[in-house]
Each structure stands twice: as structure tokens, then as C-alpha cells.
Design brief:
Elements lengths: L1 H15 L18 E6 L5 E5 L12 H13 L8 E3 L2 H4 L13 E3 H11 L2 H12 L2 H14 L26 H11 L6 H4 L3 E4 L4 E4 L4 H4 L3 E9 L3 E10 L2 E10 L2 H18 E4 L10 E4 L5 E2 L1 E3 L5 E4 L6 E6 L3 E3 L7 E9 L2 E10 L8 H14 L1
Parallel strand pairs: 11-16
Antiparallel strand pairs: 1-2, 1-9, 3-4, 5-6, 7-8, 8-9, 10-14, 11-12, 13-18, 15-17, 17-18
Helix pairs in contact: 2-5, 2-7, 4-5, 5-6
Length: 383
């Protein structure tokens, strides 16, 4: 119940606070893809977008959400890493990319995830969905609920694979923006990189080979994934992620005419990100001074920076960041933990990059009348 309440609160917050956009940017790259977006993973800042909210069929990029729900089920203990998944007749009958599961065949969670992430195996995706939710239909309900929580307002999932060979699949759509949202969330699960960074591997004790359809994993420095997709109606789609020097970008392209176009478009976006942007550490280089407390059971309170993580800025500005601390000399009790005490302003030259709250590390209770009288008496008697 507590997790559901937290999820509901996060859903509302996400709906009210869309992805931030970069305030000023270098000249935009040329991108041939009909729809595209580039975001920075840790901050979610949008650096480039083109028809980013157009709802389009995503093909197998759908499986970003399938993998996300798998990772969340593992983290929450609803399924286990040592589970064995049994393929149903329905899962084994899936067409398209597959590892040719037979009905009743058993495979480990590890090999199932590997087959989905590397070879886009539709049969394994369906088997995992059934293992988590009991049926693919119930899993799709979970997919759409999670999409709403993430603020994916352009999205309607009909299946867990992205296959569009049925009449109802005409409603199966999402956007570059929404794919970026779920990709960002998936990358928060570091274990997924064990699979999305594989170029070639095998399952069934080496008897069945897997080859990644994402060429960037092999040829683009720092590539971390994430998922390709293709059908005749969706065209060539890709959610591509890469990390260098502590900063990670996600480039999503959809409805490309050729495979080369999707990779060249994603590469152009990632190149643009790495060439022009970096993360600056906002944390003060020296410990923050304590703030004196009046009428409190403690004489002082220590301020701390509420925000963790970096601030995205243009690459040349990251090395010249200036931090200005604004704290009061005293603050009156009571003080609650997390209460704002002051502000940290992060600047580069005359440009303000961020204004971040400095908050109380711990609570300080207010002295009672009796405590205050005793303290005053002590000062009178003992100076």
C-alpha cells in the first residue's frame, strides 16, 4: 500500500513537472529521422526534439517497458533471479524475432532477459509477461499503468512485444518523448546494462547464438544500449543510450526509412550531446558553516544541499562554475529536518545555472518555557 501511494504521488508530480528543456543551446544537429528526441539521463533535460510527441507505432522498442517492469518486479521481490520461466503455448507461438521456445520449455530469468534485450525475442518477452502477471493481457494493463505514472501521455500499449500483425495492434502507439521517459527509468536499474551492452552471446548452454540488433553497442564508444525496433508500419526505430565521463544521453528516433538512417540519426544526436554538454557538480567545495539556533535545544544546525547529482551545462562552462552561498546568521527553533535554511546559487560567468535549496540536516526542537528559564538562570549564575 505504501509503495502504491508513493507511486501515485510520483505520478501526479511527473504529470505536473514535464521534462526540463535546456535554456540555451549550441546550433542544433541535422537529424534525418522523422521524429526524434535527445535527453540527458540524470536530469531528464531535453536537448533536442523533433515531432517528439507524435504518437507512432514503436515496434520492439516497446520492450523497454517490458524490461522495466521485469527489473522492477525483481527489485521488489515479486519474482527472483533464480526463477525458472516456463513457456506457454501462446508465448511459444509468437512470431517475429524469437529464440524459438517450445511450449513447456523452461529457461532462467537471466537467459530470458538476455534474449529480449539482445535479440528482441518476442517469445521470451511474452513468457516473462506471463510469469510476472499471469497473462500477457494482465501485463499490458501493468504497462499502461506504469506509463501513466511516468507521465507517458502519448502512449497506449496493446501488447508486450510491439508486434503489429493483429487488428487491435493499430492502437499500439507511443512517442519519442515517452520512449525517452521509460528508457531513462530503465537505465536507473544498473543490472539491465549486463544485457543491453552485449554484442554477441548465447543461451541454452551455448547452443543458440544471440546477436544484438543495435550496431551502436559495438561501434559507438560508451554505448549502453538500449533497444531497436522494426515493422513495416513502424519503420526503423531506436532508443540509443551512451555514457562518457559520467554523463549519459538517450537518443530516440522513430519511423525511419532505413536502418542506416536510424543509426546515423541517433549517432548525430549523441555526438551533439557529448560535444556540447557536461555535468557540473553543484556541491560546495568546502563544508557549509553551521547556522546558529535561537530558542533551540541545540545551539546550531548544519545546512546540507538537498539536491544530489550534477547540473547540466554547456561543456565550456562546466569548468568555471561559481557557487554562492546565502545563509542566515541565526534561525529560530523549532526547525524540522529538511526545512530550507538558505540557497546555493550556481553560476557560470553571469549565467545562473541553478538555485538550489540548502536545508537543515536534522530537526531542532524548541526550548520549553521551563528549559528557557533554566538556561537563562544558568547564564546568570555561571556567566
Amino acid at each position: 500500500m505504501k509503495k502504491r501511494l508513493i507511486a501515485a504521488a510520483l505520478a501526479l508530480l511527473t504529470a505536473l513537472l514535464p521534462l526540463p528543456h535546456v535554456k540555451a543551446a549550441p546550433p542544433m544537429p541535422e537529424v534525418d529521422a522523422p521524429a526524434a528526441i535527445l535527453i540527458e539521463q540524470s536530469t531528464g533535460t531535453v536537448l533536442y526534439e523533433k515531432n517528439a510527441h507524435e504518437a507512432l507505432p514503436p515496434a520492439s522498442v516497446t520492450k523497454v517497458m517490458t524490461l522495466l517492469l521485469c527489473m522492477e518486479a525483481l527489485d521488489e521481490g515479486r519474482i527472483g533471479w533464480d526463477d525458472t520461466v516456463t513457456a506457454s503455448e501462446a508465448a511459444a507461438a509468437k512470431g517475429g524475432s524469437q529464440v524459438y521456445l517450445e511450449a513447456g520449455e523452461q529457461m532462467s530469468i537471466d537467459e530470458m532477459l538476455k534474449s529480449v534485450a539482445v535479440s528482441s525475442a518476442n517469445d521470451c518477452a511474452a513468457a516473462l509477461a506471463e510469469h510476472i502477471a499471469g497473462s500477457e493481457e494482465a501485463f499490458v494493463v501493468m504497462m499502461n499503468e506504469r506509463a501513466k505514472e511516468l507521465g507517458m501521455n502519448d502512449t497506449c500499449f496493446v501488447n508486450c512485444t510491439g508486434l503489429d500483425d493483429s487488428p487491435e495492434a493499430a492502437d499500439h502507439k507511443t512517442s519519442c518523448h515517452d520512449i525517452a521517459l521509460m528508457s531513462r527509468e530503465l537505465l536507473n536499474h544498473e543490472e539491465i546494462l549486463r544485457y543491453t551492452t552485449i554484442w554477441m552471446d548465447s543461451v541454452r548452454e551455448g547452443k543458440f547464438g544471440l546477436s544484438n540488433t543495435n550496431k551502436l553497442v559495438r561501434f559507438y564508444p560508451g554505448a549502453t544500449g538500449l533497444k531497436t525496433g522494426f515493422t513495416s508500419s513502424a519503420g526503423y526505430c531506436l532508443s540509443a543510450s551512451a555514457e562518457r565521463d559520467g554523463v549519459q544521453f538517450i537518443a530516440v528516433v522513430m519511423h525511419c526509412e532505413t536502418s542506416d538512417q536510424r543509426f546515423s540519426s541517433a549517432k548525430a544526436l549523441l555526438d551533439y550531446g557529448f560535444a556540447n554538454f557536461a555535468l557540473a557538480d553543484p556541491a560546495p567545495q568546502e563544508p557549509l558553516p553551521p547556522v546558529a539556533v535561537t530558542l533551540g535545544k541545540a545551539a546550531e544546525v548544519r545546512p546540507v544541499l538537498r539536491q544530489s547529482g550534477g547540473i547540466l551545462t554547456e561543456k565550456g562552462a562546466a569548468a568555471s562554475v561559481e557557487r554562492l552561498i546565502d545563509l542566515p546568521e541565526t534561525v529560530e527553533a523549532p526547525i524540522s529536518a529538511g526545512q530550507q535554511l538558505g540557497t546555493l546559487t550556481v553560476k557560470s560567468g553571469e549565467t545562473v545555472l541553478a538555485q538550489l535549496p540548502l536545508v537543515a540536516e536534522e530537526a531542532v526542537e524548541r526550548l520549553s518555557w521551563r528549559d528557557a528559564a533554566l538556561e537563562l538562570l544558568r547564564k546568570i549564575c555561571f556567566g
